Give the backbone structure.
Amino acid sequence: MRKLLKKVVKKNSKTNVFPKNGTFSIIKNELLRDKIALVSALFLAILLVFLILSFFVIDADSILNARRDLRIIHRPPSHDFWLGTDERGRDGVVMLIIATRNTMIITLLATMISSAFGIVYGLFSGYVGGLVDRLMNSIIDVITSVPNLILMLLIINFISGYFSVIGFIFTLSVLAWTSVARVVRARVVQERELEYIIASKTLGTTHLKIIFKKLIPNLSTVIIASVVLNAVNIIIVEAGLAFFNFQHSFIGGPLPSRLVQFSDQTPTLGTLLVSTGYTHILRFRWWRWIPAMVVIVLVLFSINSLGNMLNRTTDVTKR
């Protein structure tokens, strides 16, 4: 009987869920088949390499702390300034690069933190099951029942006196982990009823070994896809928060000066969409916001294309 159970574990953990050629091989084949996802991956790779190289060329501190140059403020695009200048006379191209760099760093860190917590939360909730699972799932329901932007505005106004880049990343992470936890939990609930998990428990395999050696490898495509799509949500929330709230909080007037200083010293693609008198800028100074919007759309489209491709690989691994 014990030999039979070991055969069941070995067979199901390798063939029933996981194809012979492996998850990453499937992702590679699907990526080559999906031209849109392939172009998206190349675009993101080139963008990341360019942003990394920009650290050696652009000194963000000196540019952001430079004195206001009244001679070149609000210049339209020209041969000297391809994307014009802002209200302090700073080059639009340089500001776009710095903002994109900050957005990608914040997104990467927030995605790593929120995804790690969400994966652990979903694994534990789905694997344990029962009353614990119901309670943990109820917590997710309560958090997701309130719109992210409303929750974020409340958190930011509450911690505004201590707000910084770290605080901003923490706030994004607090609100972004639930989507990953839901996806992982749902798949774990399905997996725990399969023969190889039941047989492993019967053989006396420890829970940690089952989770790390059986569950996680078979959920790798689901985890990767949920992490990628989580990055999309974080970028949307960051941009939306900046657009709707960095100037005027709709829950009680102007934001504290600490937040205004944060948005000026740490420009992101979202904060480039807003500035004092942004209605006038939207109408007459298109070079101030359209480039940032284009970059946001391209990045979101690329990440979303990769996420959809990874979701399809999840279906392939079930065959």
About this structure: The beta strands are 248-249, 253-254. Confidence is low (pLDDT under 50) at residues 14-20, 247-256.
